[in-house]
Amino acid sequence: MTNQRGAVPHNAPVTVVGLGPMGLALAEALLDRGHPTTVWNRTPAKADGVVTKGAHRVESVAEAVSASPVVIICLKDYETMYGVLGSAADVLPGRVLVNLNSGTPSEAITAAGWAAKNGVAYLDGAIMVPPPLVGHPDSAFLYSGSEEVFSEHRETLASMGAPRFLGADPGLAVLHNTALLGMMYATMNGFMHAAALVGSANVPAVEFADLAINWFMPTVVDSTLLAQAADLDAARYPGDLGTMQMNLNALEHIVRTCVEQGVHADQARHLASIAEQALDAGHRDENYLAVFEVFKKAS
């Protein structure tokens, strides 16, 4: 397993439990980089493709866990993980478990406690790319939990993508994953709504994308957020270049335009309602970033 503390052999053996599209991509990436790879899935036939590429298929979870010092879990959720690994309790002690399920921070923290009780070194993780990008050196994988385990097995983790350690709190990886996915959906909805709005005047989405994605996002949105992120941390929202009231006026114009053009207006109304909450909280003369104060507090 480990030659000496902190030195894991190159191309160390790895087990992958769970062979959905992402689990298969993980197994293939590990195989491509020379790791002896053992696989297990509830439906054995799902392993056929990676077996032809050199993976070793086993019949039981206990065999899978026993086969490698590092076990990658890629299942539906934490409850599924407990159910699957329950039959392998006797062989879990001394293993490294890298959990790439999805869920919530509290579930990740509970899983870390469960692992400790079972004598398992534990990392919680999140995959930030779709299956086709697994294995690319710049594909982000987020990890939290034991920094010692992360450092010791970093080379193995790098076979799947670019590993980034976020901290000792086991819930940090899934928290970042949820935050980034929320941002992704909000951004995609923003673009699709904008494309629908200009589409009401027969502007093709592909034409609009050139302006919106190639110019507006990097030049206006991205640069603004990067420049002003420090203001969020400092709760500093000077309104000399535009106040919350001015931004609410713009949002109301968006709502009215949607109605005029016959385009779904609920998203614009929701944005306006959030700005109104910021006004009610006393941020009338501050800039739009003061909405951050609304987001920080549960309604």
Automatic annotation (TrEMBL):
The keyword Oxidoreductase applies. Keywords: Oxidoreductase. It comes from the Bacteria. The keyword Oxidoreductase applies. Residues 14-162 form the 6-phosphogluconate dehydrogenase NADP-binding domain. InterPro entries: 6PGD_dom2, 6PGDH_NADP-bd, HIBADH-related, HIBADH-related_NP60_sf, NAD(P)-bd_dom_sf, RedAm-like_C. PANTHER family: CYTOKINE-LIKE NUCLEAR FACTOR N-PAC, OXIDOREDUCTASE GLYR1-RELATED. This is NAD(P)-binding domain-containing protein. It comes from Saccharopolyspora oryzae. Gene3D superfamilies: N-(1-d-carboxylethyl)-l-norvaline Dehydrogenase, domain 2, NAD(P)-binding Rossmann-like Domain. Belongs to the HIBADH-related family. Residues 169-297 form the NADPH-dependent reductive aminase-like C-terminal domain.
